[in-house]
Amino acid sequence: xKIHAILAEAAFLAVALCLSSCNMGKEKAKTGTKTAAxxxxxxxxxxxxxSAYQYVKAQVDFGPRTPNSKAHKECGDYLAGxxxxxxxxxxxxxxxxxxxxxxxxxxxxxxxxYKPESKKRVALFAHxxxxxxxxxxxxxxxxxxxVLGANDGASGVGVLLEVARLMQEKAPFIGVDIIFFDxxxxxxPDTYQGRHEEExxxxxxxxxxxxxxxxxxxxxxxxxxDMVGGRNATFYQEAYSLQYAGSVVEKVWAKAxxxxxGPYFIPERGGAVTDDHLFVNRIARIPTxxxxxxxxxxxxxDFWHTTGDNMDVIDKNTLKAVGQTVIxxxxxxx
Length: 334
Ligand code: AHN
Ligand code: ZN
Known about the structure:
Helices cover 41% and strands 16% of the residues. The protein has nine helices and eight strands. The protein has helices at 2-31, 36-40, 49-60, 70-85, 150-169, 203-210, 239-258, 276-284, 316-331, and strands at 89-98, 104-114, 121-127, 175-181, 221-225, 235-237, 265-269, 288-291. The chain has a six-stranded mixed beta sheet with strand order 1-2-4-3-5-8, sandwiched between helices. A two-stranded parallel sheet has the order 6-7. α7 links the parallel β6 and β7. α3 (49-60) crosses α5 (150-169), α5 (150-169) packs across α9 (316-331) and α7 packs across α9 (316-331). The termini are far apart. Bound molecules: N-[2-(1H-imidazol-4-yl)ethyl]acetamide and zinc ion. Zinc ion (ZN) binds next to loops.
């Protein structure tokens, strides 16, 4: 009898204590800087730029990844293998796509999915092919030479491979799809006499946007990385990104600022770029932004679409700024 009473009292006290402390927690949550919701997110891991750099170099070491070439096939296998080794569910999307001049391209979009069962998803994009001609090379005799694409191609993919490696170590709350588009950079060269059309570019992303790897695929938003490894690169808010996904631009630039990458992510409107995100926005209707350098003076970098787009132009600090920002964004989604 006595023991029962004590036990009952203890139980009452425990419940009362729990209630009061839980309430206190809620009160603190409202007034403190860290809310209970913030505490529930998974701490963003540290993006390793040395690791990302190695993934950029590994791609460049295959040589130019021009569609229909041996290096393209080998690099595609390398990328799918890497995603698989990092625990992603990998899908290869093969397609015969037609270039501006009628050439058939054996294209391959490569998709690595994390938590594929989750309805809460974010998509991360980069193109993995490289331009078949260095049509902007200052040396006229080199304008038919394929570009190595250390920055234009390999940088975005290298950053996303590092994101994949980190997600295997500790998964973010949401599901993530890493999507490597093919045949982005096969748009007509400057010398082409016919009509220049934006649909000549981004063939892989146009295909995926019409025929996603999963029927009815959707994501909260998408982030495209293009040329994200250049020395002295800065990232203005690209105009199509603002038009189609303004709130995503705000979110990403705010996270970059918070993480200390304000000098890279300039919160001002930039130009409009015909890039993979345009077709993802228009066709797949997933609000998607493009992180791409296009300063008035920098342009896409003076090595863009030249034979000079090699490992010498890659700066680990730029890879870190972009990679860490992407990490902060995806680990803060609930
Ligand atoms: C155009 O030059 C039309 N678009 C730039 C997209 C691009 C090319 N990204 C990498 N290479
Ligand atoms: Zn290009």
